[in-house]
Amino acid sequence: GVEALTGLGVLGRAMAARGAYRCIECSGEATELYRDYQRGVLRISICKSCQKPVDKYIEYDPVIILINAVLCKAQAYRHILFNTKINIHGKLCVFCLLCEAYLRWLQLQDSSQNTDPDDLIRYAKEWDFYRMFGIASLEQTSFFIGIFITLWWMTPEMLKRKSDSILLLKALLLSTYGKLLLIPAVIWEHDYTPLCLAFIKVFVLISNSQAIRVTLNLNRILPWFAIFFGLILENGVVCLFQKMGWDV
């Protein structure tokens, strides 16, 4: 607990200067997460709005925080998005897209009966994987664009600043971590694999909804409305690829 608090020292002073902290309970702004009374005496700050600890998770083990995030608790999401410095958004996004591309590529190979070991065939199969990665990237991009368009239309005041849009994009990228479960679902293939893949899809959408809700401090309905339009745009892209004769 003490190590986790002291580890926030440098970051804490920088973020406090901008008032960038948020209370994980009410999402109110806070100038500090804890107060250092010297000689190892640290005290978690109390939120002026709700009178609760600003961020109790700074004392928690990362595993506990991860479990709470998997359970889609708003407090855990606020802790990760507002009160920590995480810069794995891009890497996580690429890795999730690779997982999705691999799953699609594997399904494409299963549907193909060609077992010719010729180098040209292997080269074509390799390019199939790159094509699947590109399609998955375009689908996710269209999904995010649909969400942003809906939010800009419904709540234009929420995304006036560029920093708000960037934060929302980072939150959406982080909330796609559920796609990492695609690989185990494929490796341990079972009769219920299609059902598992459907549950993973639902879990990712729930995580996306929670990320939108926490980032913009919205009710539960509007994030799902934005996700619905995002899915419409994503499926529109899928239909376009299918009309072009591509396997997706």
UniProtKB/TrEMBL annotation:
The keyword Endoplasmic reticulum applies. The gene is Arv1. GO terms for biological process: intracellular sterol transport; regulation of plasma membrane sterol distribution; sphingolipid metabolic process; sterol metabolic process. It is found in: Endoplasmic reticulum membrane. Pfam families: Arv1. Its main location: endoplasmic reticulum. This is Protein ARV. InterPro entries: Arv1. It comes from Tychaedon coryphoeus.
